[in-house]
Design brief:
single chain; 87 residues; 75% helix
Length: 87
């Protein structure tokens, strides 16, 4: 069995085997951000947790809405703190 983990001696080989998935991953992430921004614009509620919070932060910064900016920053920092404490 071949070792394809990122800690293997040959991580570049594993990357080249999986590089065809990168455009799809970028497209899915962009679509999620677009959907979050549109739904956030109409209903003022983020659709998902992290991408919704980042979309809310971006829209708040664009509109200079400090309440939305602080809300997005708080959600993102809370997520990161939970990830750090959870290990």
């Amino acid at each position: 069995m071949k070792d394809t983990s990122i800690h293997s001696a040959r991580p570049a080989r594993a990357f080249y085997r999986l590089k065809h998935r990168i455009p799809g991953a970028v497209a899915l992430a962009g679509t999620a951000g677009f959907v979050n921004s549109v739904v956030l614009g109409f209903f003022h509620v983020p659709v998902s947790h992290m991408t919704g919070a980042v979309s809310r932060l971006g829209l708040g910064m664009a509109d200079l809405e400090t309440r939305d900016v602080w809300s997005g920053v708080t959600i993102i920092l809370g997520f990161l703190a939970g990830a750090v404490f959870a290990g």
